[in-house]
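User: I'm curious what two different proteins look like when written out as structure tokens. Can you demonstrate?

Assistant: Sure. I'll show them one after the other, since each token string lines up with its own sequence. Here's the first protein:
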Amino acid sequence: MNTTPSTPTTDDTDEKKATDSTVAAPDVTKKAGAAEDAIPDGVAPGVTASDVTEMDVAATDAAAEDGVHAGTEPEPFAEADEATAAGTGAGTGAAAVVSAGLGIVSLSGAWTGRVAAERETLLGQIKTSQGGSAAQQISEIYGDAWHTTAFVNGLFALLALLVGVFVLVRPAFGTPSVLPQAGWIRSVAWAGIALGVLGLLISVGMYLDLFVALPSAAGG
């Protein structure tokens, strides 16, 4: 009878290790499941771990969306500055057009000048109705009306000049604008200044009788 103990083979050893691993696997899975099902401190009773995870994901998405919107929204002060600049540009543009219009009126004559001239003519007729020399009649009836027309046209020319200069120098004063002054505004303003200067020169010449002298009684 053979009493020598049998030595375990390599196959038996491998099978034993595999069996031990299989037995230990449920413990690892159980530990992992316990870690996933763990609920953080401070959570209300009845809230599961999956609910906490869903709330975390929702909070993260909301924060990301808020960040995107915050980055794309324009600055309120920038919008206000642009609106103010647009309003200032509209005002200076209108002033430039007014300057050019006043310059044209100073050259062509205004109805106010005609009314004032007719008034002076009427006053001259009243003054000379009781008699007067020819020179006096020319001065009272014709000369005063001529000078009044020149004076009124000169006022329009001076206004055109002042408004045009104001439009050009406006960007240098007050709060700096975020938008540069439009080119057409400067062009129209320069046109108003040119017409104003020309109208002012002509009016001064008319008032001082530099271009056309008053008729004399001897020449009549």
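Here's a second, unrelated protein for contrast:
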Amino acid sequence: MTTTGRRALLRAGAAAGATALVGCTSSGDGESPRRPSAAELEAERVARAEAALRLRSVTAARNLLERYDAVLAAHPALAPRLTPLRRSVAAHATALGEGGTTVKPVTASPSASASASAVAPAPVRVPADPRAALEELAGAARKAADGHTNALLTAPPEYARLLASVAAAGAAHAYLLTEGAPA
């Protein structure tokens, strides 16, 4: 066999091998989709759990922010006392929502469209007495802080540190609202 013959044979073999590989990895119209691996399914489960945790945390912070807004609207005289705390809660809501995970499903989820529908929150009722309004706001701050504390158990490490900081700040806000300067 001559050199040209060997080269031609090698080229033909390489082309046949490449064709075989492409045939094995391409998905034709009639083929069924590739099944996700156990690692891909686990990664999707973890990402969905983290996204749900972030959504719950942001929702709790935004609900508390709405409560601050309602108390400020009903009792403008409390603005010097509540405005710095409200700004802090707004920063917490922003920080809790940053860096969220976007989950691209590996498998089709029939319940995805059912969970996408949102329900409008009920309007916040504020007591006419400023002291009672502060007590209710403090209770809401405690509830949000407790929710963030409970979420620590399932949060990834970096997000858990943020949740711990926000929970501590929420507990401090509850104290300042009830035990701090009088209304």
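A detail about the second structure: DSSP finds six helices and no strands in the chain.
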